[in-house]
Amino acid sequence: MDALSLDKVELIISIAREVGEESNSIIDEELAENQEPQHYSELSMAAEADYITREDHASNSSYQELKAMINNMNEEEQNELVALMWLGRGTFGKKEWESAVEEAREANNDHTAEYLMSTPMLPDYLEEGLSIMIDD
Questions:
Q1: Domains in the chain, number
Q2: Residue 19 belongs to a domain
């Protein structure tokens, strides 16, 4: 990682965890309002999370902070952050780092923050990616 600092990634992971906790409380509220008893699996909970609207996040300061932080990063930092997430997810291996960054560079657009923030388990993938990059 040349452009992206370890401190910045750790801060993003921390804020992404806060966003996840807030999203879970929104889901819990919606499920509590549901009158029919249902069994929710991890998959159905993830599907429910996809339906959380932008209005739901408008009052979530952690969500807004994370989105602004990613949007304010330069392109190379965004590319490396996406590549790091892909590395942690297992899409690329450590030896393929440059390829992952290049693919992220080719895919880069104005929706990087939304793409990353809509990724289930983003903080876990970033942590795993860091672990892979730091281990020799």
A1: 1
A2: yes
